Amino acid sequence: MVDEPHRLSEVIARGSLARLRNEAERRRMETAAVRRLLPTEEAAHLVSAATNEAGELTLVMDTPGWAARVRFAVGSLPNARVKIRVAPGGA
Fold it and tell me: What are phi and psi of 42, to 5 degrees?
């Protein structure tokens, strides 16, 4: 028996693609929330933000220079455990 074709929206709405979509949306929302907490200049250079299972926040900045600057701004964030990373090759 041949499977019936499915709409792309149906395929995306279930299984591993649904989990991937949900994780991407969670990270997008978390990044937006962190941007609101950072100073304007630093926020503009934030590529992404995500909290892991241990509650540690990882910020990914677009350049090493902005990563260094944001290290001084993390005091304004509610999470005491913060890692700062740089996007590979710049963003």
Answer: -65, -40
Distance of alpha carbon 46 from alpha carbon 73, whole angstroms: 12
- What is the CB neighbour count within 10 angstroms for residue 26? 12
End-to-end Cα separation, the chain, in angstroms:
47
Strand partners, 59: 49, 84
- Whole-number Å distance between alpha carbons of 53 and 36: 23
CB 66 within 8 A of CB 45: yes
Is pTM beyond 0.90 here?
no
Q: Label residue 89 exposed, middle or buried (CB < 10 Å: 0-12, 13-18, 19+).
A: exposed
Q: Per residue in 30-85, pLDDT tens? A: 999 999 988 899 999 999 999 988 889 999 999 999 999 998 878 767 666 889 99
DSSP reduced 3-state for 51: strand
